């Protein structure tokens, strides 16, 4: 005999933040934007100024300038997207949305590590 019960249509559960979910998402995005403002400006500075490649010294000086700039532009775009991703995740706050956002962050980190190994080190 089977112990499985019949299941109807599955509704995705969300955490109850009330009618102000969008405001909480915007607030979380704003806090994240404040926290990443300095790394964002530094990554844009590294990407746009050609002399910054010499700041890192060693093997990084011999890396191609295009690879160096591409790496820092990808880091800058990731930093720029982070407040929007966090705000959207807080506003939606469902298990599925958080898993998708977590997967995007993991893929971004893997991409940065791989590009860093290929072009910088």
TrEMBL record:
Top-level taxon: Bacteria
Transmembrane feature ranges: 21-40, 70-91, 98-120
Claim: Transmembrane is one of the keywords in the record: yes
Annotated keywords: Membrane, Transmembrane, Transmembrane helix
Protein name, per record: DUF1634 domain-containing protein
